[in-house]
């Protein structure tokens, strides 16, 4: 690792109904990431709890059952994560089921290397299909797509389903690194589609893209793992195994940003006078 590289850790770990154990293992993973010299560590979608939307929330009493599992930010989990962030001088990005008043969100929170909340990103597009009954849990995000500077690297987040929308990935073009916390099951899509999607986004927009996926067998789903990192030219430069807990480390070389096709060509050559926004 050279002085100029930015080392990140993607924490791919199973989650069970034992929330205390999930959090304790997450803290140990952060300790290992710090020992490896990481400056940023990120978790998968709902990485510290079961994936609740496998079954619908109790629609007859929406403030109970599934919707009652959400927590505030700041709250117990972010406070524990913030302590680890400040202990290690490392940015930590968990994804949580957030409660704010009577609303609920799928939220990633960026905790600074001093344990401060720098930003929150809430999932914008909410799906609802078999085993992913997310509209019964989440309200649509309302905080946009913040990009924050962490140690000279500009970081944005596209939560799971949002990565399917090219306009989201283009809106993050000012970032150096886009993180995608995901809950992706085995055999959910044709092989290679997840990678192709983020390879294309990284290539077209000139940033590193890192997908952090869930892993392990839960109530109705087997999550695939296989977290990975793409360089700004679309190359996959790091990959975690399928079906295993894994701490994926990757060194991001900032020189690859300015030499990327998007920053040298694509973004500059855009026809900004053309309006494609009205087309479906």
What does this structure look like?
It is built from 6 helices and 17 strands. With 280 residues, it is α/β, with parallel strands linked by helices. The chain has a 6-stranded mixed β-sheet, with helices on one face. A 4-stranded mixed β-sheet has the order 3-2-1-17, covered by helices on one side. Strands 4-5-6 form a 3-stranded antiparallel β-sheet. Helix 1 packs parallel to helix 2 (76-88).
Summarize the topology.
Layout: E1 6-12, H1 19-35, E2 40-43, H2 76-88, E3 91-93, E4 95-100, E5 103-111, E6 117-122, E7 128-129, E8 132-133, E9 147-150, E10 153-157, H3 166-171, E11 177-182, H4 193-205, E12 208-213, E13 215-217, E14 222-224, E15 228-230, E16 236-239, E17 246-252, H5 255-258, H6 261-266
Parallel strand pairs: 1-2, 2-3, 10-11, 11-12
Antiparallel strand pairs: 1-17, 4-5, 5-6, 7-8, 9-10, 12-15, 13-14, 15-16
Helix pairs in contact: 1-2
Distance between the termini: 45 Å
Anisotropy-based shape: globular
User: Which sequence of strands runs across the widest sheet?
Assistant: 9-10-11-12-15-16
Order of helices and strands: EHEHEEEEEEEEHEHEEEEEEHH
Query: Can you give the mean pLDDT?
Result: 94
- How much helix, percentage-wise, in residues? 10-25%
**Strand tally, please?**
17
Beta-strand content estimate: 25-35%
Largest sheet: 6 strands, mixed
